Amino acid sequence: MAQMAQAGLPLASGLRAMAEESDSRRLAEVLWGIAARLDEGGTLEAAVAQQGARIPEPIRSLILAGARSGRLSIVLEEL
Asked: pTM above the 0.85 mark?
C-alpha cells in the first residue's frame, strides 16, 4: 500500500487490492468501505471516521496525521 501511495496511484485502488488479498474478512470489509467512500468523493478523514471503532483510535490518528502532513506513504510503511 505504501508503495502504491508513493507511486501516486489512487488510494482507493490500493485499498481494494489490499482487501482482495486480505485473509481477514473484517479487514477486507474496512478497506472496501474506505475505498467506496473515497470513490464517492469523500475525504480520507471522512472515510476513516465512518469506520469508527473498526479501526483502532491510534491507527486512525496515524493515518490521518500522515494524510494531513503529506506523508501518508511513510506512515503506511510503518503500519
From this structure: no
- Contact between 15 and 31 under an 8 Å Cβ cutoff? The reply is yes
pLDDT tens string 31-73: 999 999 999 999 988 999 999 899 999 989 998 898 899 888 7
Grid coordinates in use for 5?
Answer: 501511495
Distances (CA, A) of 69 to 60, 65, 72: 14, 6, 7
> Which run of H or of E encompasses 16?
helix 11-21
As given in the structure block, the three cell numbers for residue 13 are 485502488
Contact between 69 and 62 under an 8 Å Cβ cutoff? The reply is: no
Q: Is the dihedral of CA 24, 44, 35, 73 positive or negative?
A: negative
All cell numbers assigned to 74: 511513510
Please, are residues 41 and 28 in contact by the beta-carbon 8 Å criterion? Answer: no
With cell 474496512, the residue in question is 30
